[in-house]
Write a structure and sequence with these properties.
Elements lengths: L4 H11 L5 E6 L2 E5 H11 L4 E4 L5 E8 L3 H10 L4 E6 L12 E7 L15 E7 L2 E8 L4 E7 L2 H11 L3 E5 L6 H11 L2 E5 L3 H15 L14 H17 L10 E2 L10 H6 L15 H5 L5 H12 L5 H16 L1 H11 L5 H10 L4 H11 L1 H9 L5 H9 L4 H10 L20 H28 L5 E5 L3 E7 L11 E5 L3 E5 L1 H34 L1 H27 L5 E3 L4 E6 L2 H6 L7 E5 L5 E5 L6 H16 L8 E5 L3 E5 L12 H15 L4 E6 L7 H15 L7 E5 L4 H8 L3 E11 L2 E9 L8 H7 L4 H39 L7 H11 L8 H24 L1
Parallel strand pairs: 1-5, 7-10, 9-12, 10-11, 17-21, 20-24, 20-25, 22-23, 23-24
Antiparallel strand pairs: 1-2, 2-4, 3-4, 5-6, 7-8, 8-9, 13-14, 14-16, 15-16, 18-19, 18-21, 25-26
Helix pairs in contact: 6-7, 10-20, 11-20, 12-15, 12-20, 13-14, 13-20, 14-17, 15-16, 16-20, 18-19, 26-27
Length: 873
Amino acid sequence: MALTPMMQQYLEIKESNPDALLMFRLGDFYELFFEDAVTASKVLEITLTGRDAGEQGRVPMCGVPHHAAQQYIGRLIDNGYCVAICEQVEDPKAAKGLVKREVIQVVTPGTWLKDGESESRFLAAVTKVGLLIGIAFVDVGTGEVWYGSASDEEALRELLVSYRPLEMLISDAESALAPKLEEYCKETTARLSTVPHSSTRSKQELSSITRQYRVVHTEALGLETPSAEAAAVGRLMLYLEETQKQVLSHLKSPRSFENAGQAFLDVVAKRNLELLETQRNRQKKGSLYGLLDKTKTAMGSRQMRRWIEHPLMNVARIEARLEAVEWLLGELFVRAELQEWLARVYDLERLIGKVGFGSANARDLVAIAQSLQAVPQVQARLNAAPPRLLSQLSQDLPDLSQRAAQILNILVDQPPLSVHDGGMIREGADEDLDAFRHMHVDGKEWLAQFEQEEKEKTGIRTLKVGYNKVFGYFVEVSKANVHLVPDRYERKQTLASAERYTLPELKAREDEILHAEERALAREYEIFVSLRDEVAAAIPAIQKTAERLAELDAILSLATAAVEYGYVRPVVVEERGIEIVNGRHPMVEAAAPLSFVPNSVDLGSGCDFILLTGPNMAGKSTYMRQIALIVLMAQIGSFVPADSARIGVVDRVFTRIGASDDLGAGQSTFMVEMVELAQILRQSTPRSLVLLDEIGRGTSTYDGMSLAEAVMEALLVPGRNPLTLFATHYHELTERAVALKRVENFSVAVQETKDGVTFLHAVVPRPADKSYGIQVAKLAGVPGAVIKRATEILAEREQEAASGRRMLAGADAAAEAATAVEAEAPTVPAEVLDWLAEVEGLAVERMTPIEAIGRLDEVVRRAREVSTWAKSR
């Protein structure tokens, strides 16, 4: 079926971009056709119309104005779609026949530059080479590129949750990884994009790295080939080439996130400790990030988040930050002046990203220049700073004052958003532009004078001179005054209420005026593009400036928080151990500063394991969390909420706190807890900090208590023994703790009266003797009848337990009496009894065939030994 030439062109371009909605430039609009139009009209809530497509008749169509396209593209991206932007790539005036069009960019969730967004927006690529899973991340807005590897799918998931990519790339040959990535996509609404697999493409992916960074070998970037990491970075680079249709000059050199100088925090620890967002409503406010983020720039805020997610282990680097925070804390005026200047700095990282993309407008360049103007002022206040870190920051700031001056001397203070409509360049910045503008202005003045003269000559007071793109300049006269029009007027267009005419002198001036305006607009755009290219050449220096200002902003933020909340400088050491005097939970204290009860802890010197008992609501979880938070705050270089703190750096914080389930994966709360516990037991080291809350709940009392005791013993094994806080309701464990080395019993104090209990929130060095569950239920508002009945049942149970103990004592006496009689009977050796108990405990159903044969052989051998012994008796 024959289609119009334009529709044939549309379908040919669409065939090359099947997975994207094609926005096809027609004049001042981007149009979508066929199924793309139906989809876009629903998502964008715009009218679905139609267009003649030839013999096929009318086909669905919808469109958006080109000047507002970005907001519509953003809505499509936020709904999970990709958008191919198809532009005219030749001048319509010079085109012979159909104007040539090409896709100039494919916008995807991972490559969308969203205006005003301050959070990182990552695109990820996942590969598998041998036994290793390679993974790489890029934030095209800031230019950050990170890479590393994962040993298994669980480690891969940890990285995905940590970086939160909005789009992930995988080849169609790596189906084994697809289920895990699809699972993540369902949880987060991220997009999973598939790229083809072939040996040729693999080579293209690796060569795209060398093209992007202009190096001969990837080893120059620290990427060995072949490797899973290099394959992942290459997949990212080639995908960006294919979708963005250019080399992005602002991308920074790839960096490995597998840095031995940083402590690792998994998603469970981040969630339980509320490092980045609260558990209840998933908001920044109320989290540690929300508490410490006093930054003045978007770059500084992102830096603060990174510091919280990746605490340092290098004592020298930690001390350098602490020294800088301490100095700024005492320099009120310097701190205030620095923050005042930083408040004038825009998001340089994202602005320079737009320059790298070639999408920056004049306002973006002015914002860059105004930001760079703050640098000399910042340097002046840091030059005299004693802390080495601050003086180094000052020295590392490039001198870009001339570049800033150049931008501000060329561009007006408040340029328009569009770069094609003029009004960007200052008067006097370019002689040719000024000449074109003067010609245009002179022409406008001539038109105004010509209109007035014609009114006087003809006597038509309503006569006016107008313009449109089709007919050019014209004289318009209303129908009522047509009889007054002179013969020298040549009719050009008839309207319902007026006639339009042209005159020889008006035609002569039209070319001059329009030519001047066109040349002025063309010259403005030429000057702007040249200026943008010069700014692009300074991208590395501007990125370095952005990094240093972000670091300074984060340090200032820590100093501000320390002043505001009354924090103290911790002592951070290499030696293992945590000693905190009167520590406080930072977020809880901020919410209720007057009622918070501080508590101390001493782990690592004489005690590695604290068994913490006490009722619910007494503050056990708060106490454990505050210790972890103080440790992490110290390791990011922050002052801490305590009277004093001595922190030996930890390599990882493990948490098993609170109830959670994963019903989608078929895992109950108890199963989730056991999975997390298994990870702790496998990965913890003597340098780790472990927080465990109510291990063993969710199963029978004896099962749970046995499991809890076994976990205690496992965490005390030399070579693994991490610093541990273990909260439990199993009071029987307190007796076991007494017998174990480097274990101490602590509890949360409770004051009991005839009216109920009062939680004192003070941690004391003794075990709790009760759980106070009924009293807590009463405080929670459980009906009185239930409380009364529970009290009666508890009394009965306690009486039964006492009777059981008496019966047991009687049984012990009877056993002693029988011992004298049995003394004359043959005594079975202890080793035989042990062996019989071992046989009884064999779990045959869990053995492999080889294991079962081996154990059977052992049973037969021991049975023969027992038989020989019996015959000898």
